[in-house]
User: Fold this.
Amino acid sequence: MAKSPRFQAEEVARALGVATVEFLGGGAFGDTWRVEDRAVKIICDDKYPADRVAREVAGLSRVDSPYVVKLYNARSVLLGGINRPALTFEFVPGGDLDQKVSSGIRPSNEEASALLRGLLTGLSDLHGAEGTVHRDIKPENIALRNGSWAEPVILDLGLAKAMTEETQTVYPAMLGTWLWASPEQLEHKPGRKQSDVFSVGVTVRYAITGEHPFIEDWRSITSLDEVTSAIAAGPKPLPDSVHASLKRVLDRMVQPIQNERGSAASNLRLLGDAA
Assistant:
């Protein structure tokens, strides 16, 4: 997330009609601010496509799950002389998964299983809502409610698309953040449900080890072909301390071939059977 906001806090507070705001972080297109028990995402990119805002609203309105962030309303605010989309969400206290892992904290076996179970449940709920696909699962897009590994919340559905909708994306164009994206997305192919499964698997492995499962040093990568080759070669082995049953599910989820990963629901069942 960006370390500094595009607009001053006082200016944002005036635009929102509140006394104070707290900067939570920024992404490529917008900044997120805390307003009491809400989080308001303001799109700051003047050229951000209106259809993408509509997609985020539609994606969130299709699902009702404790593991997917709740959207309260969408409106526009006058900021920097431009009317900008503003989406009001529930504020999820506890920080995101990337912050926790970066601070050196790792989940126990039981916590890692609970984290995976929560993410697969959220993903299953999302995929069951008219086949909505997230396409940008990554550590920064997963909040941990009250800091608990067992209560992950999937954030930022700006790239979400129902499988029943016509895509707004002109391929080849890679959606998602490449470090966490599936090989098919890296190859500029459409992201599917199994793409989300892959990204959850990569993210949970990162939480367990503190390292990317395929890339030793992301700064040394010069092409996406290097990443797809690393994925084809297989992930780094998980530590011996990780339960064999959890390893089995996580290994399945990061297979390079889509139909070998299983669905969110089938992996959830497999995780339950192995418990």
